[in-house]
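Re: weekly structure request thread

Next one in the queue (254 aa):
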Amino acid sequence: MIAVTDHGTTRVLAFDRPEARNAIDVPTRERLLTALREAASAPGVRAIVLTGTGGTFSAGGDVREMRGVGPEAVAARLEPLHEAVRLMMTCAKPVVAAVEGVAAGLGMSFAVACDHVVAAEDARFVAAFGKVGLVPDGGLLWTLPQRVGIGRAKDLLVFGRTVPARRAHEIGLADSLAPSGGALDAALELAAEAAVLAPLSVAATKRVLARAEPDLDRLLAAEREEQTAIYASADFAEGRAAFAERRPPRFEGR
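Done, posted below.
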């Protein structure tokens, strides 16, 4: 689920399913959205940090719970996810990701939707949606090109590259590096810097930046359409089975 703690004027939201490497199931998505709404509206909170417990940011969406999910359920699953991404990118408060271990799949999507990404030196990012037969979600098809450019985004997403922290920093996927185990401390320092800035200025800046990028909703709608359709594919069924059986998948394009 989501662990919530306050550090002065900073609220820390942590993916907290260490037994599943902080995989993001439906209850976690819903709890994250609730926690983000509470943090965004809390008068005493000036910044938000998103991280994970147990030395891992998140291994991504929980593939184990996806079996037998039909088109209507897929759309319902995406709603809290999309609302959380919108809120992170448009709320009046800075949102900082503190990445330890791996930020994979949907975990990477949430990390790069933040205003600033702090990566531990031994962290890594990977968006290998193609290895389980799905489309990148969580707005990643929009946010990643914004960070690294369309060419690098294609390379990372189409080929499912694993990006170590130093390379992530070089290409703009991560904004700053921290020692191993120190990402949260570094994120809290950044949040403390934000706490002394004018809240109205920060809020207005984020609002204008959000208005200057009007295609997010269209991308999220397209993502919903594609993801809903692909859930019914044989390739996704094969991807789930291969994941569960710990073997390479055998995709047939159907």
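The domain at 2-179 is CATH 3.90.226.10 (2-enoyl-CoA Hydratase; Chain A, domain 1). The first strand starts at residue 2 and ends at 7.
Next request, please.
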